[in-house]
Design goal:
By secondary structure, this protein is of the alpha+beta class. The chain has helices spanning 3-12, 14-45, 69-84, 131-135, 153-156, 171-177, 241-255, 267-274, 276-310, 312-320, 325-362, 371-395, 399-404; strands at 56-62, 89-95, 106-110, 119-127, 139-142, 151-152, 166-170, 187-189, 195-202, 221-227, 231-236, 260-266. Helix 2 (14-45) crosses helix 11, helix 3 packs across helix 7 and helix 9 packs parallel to helix 12 (371-395). It is elongated and about 100 Å long.
Length: 405
């Protein structure tokens, strides 16, 4: 066996061997966590909002002068009537918020009045009965609001105990509040002592800030039948969104000469901007991984090449005594395997410690254990590939040439 000669050689080159071990350990710890971060970013980029994103656009207005609250509902109703009359518009509504937007409205929901008992935080959407068809949301059970159930926001909140008779929630919220049973027909409390009845459960309705879906409420969201201010949302026929954005902008600005559409963006464009940082982070982490792996491979190649030069006479002596090329090749591969294995063992401990630090400091999810053996195998293969060329060159040295050097 070559273990004893290898260990004896490594003891004489402690610094060089230690540097390779340290390099492998750092690469293992950093790359393992970086790949996990890339995976979390990719999951975020592929998250399903539940909306018909390619058909939706968001328009925001700025008025010439503030309107009294009691007049807002009438203006909104007139605007929506004109938008819905446009050919090529499937549906239109005004909502207080939408996914990928800059605002975030949330409310606490409990099963008992005055916020007693179990309580969760949920994203609070407010819109009329056309929100579901405009957003492209799908009901799992129950029904949509009727036009008669939609309330004026100003009037609803002009009293100390607002009464919101109905609401629609998403499946996440239904499972949290009523596990194992139907949520339709159940009552919850949002604003004080007045109960609200759940009339529908949606398959998917996300928080406007999707990164918060893992926070309190775990992605719970609800829709209240409230008519008021907010963003105008239109849904166009497939392939007509750009043309309908222009038409909707003209309709809204013509309806009130003092108003200007300050923003008219497709939801797909808003999604791209929302995830720009995640996309950049994924590319950055990918670059870090590639750079670290290349540096580690170059370090292994450089050290192995140096040791081949230093041990030329030893290689010649072994060949003269009958060692085959395969035995010389196996010697250097086994030496590399010992170094990389030591570095990997240290690196796996560092990966777990780094993951714990990231969890505590940045609320990132725990590093899945499958990344540890995957990282170990990858570095073992990298080490063997990196040492192959110098080891092969050493194995091909002829005994006479090696002993003369």
């Amino acid at each position: 066996m070559d273990f004893l000669p290898i260990l004896s050689t490594l003891r004489r080159h402690k610094i060089a061997a230690g540097l390779i071990v340290l390099e492998v350990a750092l690469t293992c710890a950093i790359v393992t966590n970086a790949l996990h971060l890339i995976q979390t970013r990719i999951e975020a980029l592929n998250a399903d909002s539940g909306l018909a994103e390619t058909e939706i656009a968001v328009l925001n207005l700025r008025g010439s002068r503030p309107q009294p609250p009691e007049r807002t509902a009438g203006i909104v109703a007139e605007d929506l009537a004109r938008l819905r009359a446009l050919p090529g518009i499937k549906a239109a509504t005004v909502a207080n918020q939408i996914v990928y937007g800059n605002n975030s409205n949330n409310s606490g929901v409990s099963l008992e009045p005055d916020n007693r008992g179990q309580r969760i935080s949920a994203a609070q959407y407010a819109a009329d009965d056309q929100m579901l068809p405009t957003f492209g949301l799908k009901l799992l059970e129950g029904r949509n609001f009727t036009a008669e159930e939609v309330l004026d926001s100003f009037q609803a909140f002009s009293v100390s105990d607002p009464r919101i008779g109905q609401l629609i929630i998403n499946k996440v919220m239904a499972d949290k509040l009523f596990p194992g049973r139907s949520a339709v027909g159940q009552t919850v409390y949002i604003f004080g002592r007045s109960p609200s009845t759940i009339i529908g459960v949606l398959d998917t309705l996300t928080h406007t800030q999707l990164h918060r879906a893992r926070g309190d409420g775990g992605g719970a969201a609800m829709i209240l039948p409230l008519r008021g201010g907010g963003s105008y949302i239109i849904r166009a026929e497939p392939g007509q969104l750009d043309a309908q954005i222009k038409a909707a902008t003209a309709v809204l600005e013509e309806g009130n000469k003092g108003r200007v559409v300050t923003q008219a963006r497709p939801l797909t464009e808003m999604r791209a901007a929302f995830y720009a940082q995640d996309r950049a982070m994924a590319w950055l982490m990918g670059g870090v991984c590639v750079a670290l792996l290349l540096v580690t491979a170059m370090g292994i190649v450089g050290l192995a090449s140096f040791w081949v030069q230093q041990r030329t006479r030893m290689i010649g002596t072994r060949r003269a005594l009958g060692a085959t090329q395969q035995q010389i090749l196996r010697y250097f591969q086994l030496e590399n395997l010992l170094l990389t294995s030591t570095g990997i063992l240290i690196g796996l401990g560092g990966a777990v410690a780094l993951s714990q630090l990231l969890m505590q400091s940045y609320e990132l999810p725990r590093l899945p254990w499958l990344y540890l053996p995957a990282g170990a195998v990858s570095l073992w293969l990298l080490g063997q590939l990196a040492v192959w060329v110098p080891a092969r060159r050493a194995a091909r040295l002829s005994p006479v040439a090696a002993l003369r050097s």
